[in-house]
Write a structure and sequence with these properties.
This is HYDIN protein. InterPro entries: Hydin-like, Ig-like_fold. One of its GO terms (biological process) is axonemal central apparatus assembly. It comes from Columbina picui. The protein is an all-beta fold. It has a domain at 10-18 and 26-52 and 88-137: Sandwich (Immunoglobulin-like), CATH 2.60.40. Helices cover 0% and strands 49% of the residues. It contains no helices and ten strands. The strands form two sheets. A five-stranded antiparallel β-sheet has the order 1-3-9-7-6, with no helix packed on it. Strand 6 and strand 7 (98-101) form a beta hairpin.
């Protein structure tokens, strides 16, 4: 009896790879940006997007993950960030000035998913968020 197997990890790409900057915006305006998540492996994988627990530079190295930073400015004072409660596993969620969707999903081999980030420049101030994309089997 001949038996064979091949072990592999999920392979993926994120384009653009890290910073999405909305730049300076007039208070009350809205801009939309997207990034692409692509399954480059031979297995299906699931993904979840959520707020990083701390700054990207300080994330522990023992658990690799993909990090995306969203930044937007509307002239004025700094914006306080919303609490984490209720953000995990939501199809659409808001963090400060940003709305991200979809927040989770599944990709077949060769599949792509466009992730949309809306920035609503209200109230005046600066908003930066660090988000993680958790990909199963990476």
């Amino acid at each position: 009896v001949k038996v064979s197997a091949r072990a592999t990890f999920s392979k993926y790409s994120i384009c653009p790879a890290s910073l999405i900057s909305f730049g300076a915006m007039i208070n009350g305006t809205k801009k939309t940006c997207t990034f692409r998540l692509e399954n480059k492996g031979i297995l299906d994988f699931k993904f979840h997007i959520y707020r990083a627990e701390q700054d990207v530079a300080e994330l522990p190295k023992k658990r690799p993950r993909s990090d995306v930073l969203f930044a937007g400015d509307a002239l004025g004072q700094a914006v306080r960030h919303q609490p984490l409660l209720g953000l995990f596993l939501q199809a659409r969620f808001t963090l400060g000035m940003f709305t991200v969707y979809p927040g989770f999903g599944s990709l077949p081999p060769g599949g792509q998913q466009m992730i949309t980030v809306d920035c609503q420049a209200e109230p005046p101030g600066t908003c930066k968020e660090h988000l993680c994309i958790d990909i199963s089997g990476r």
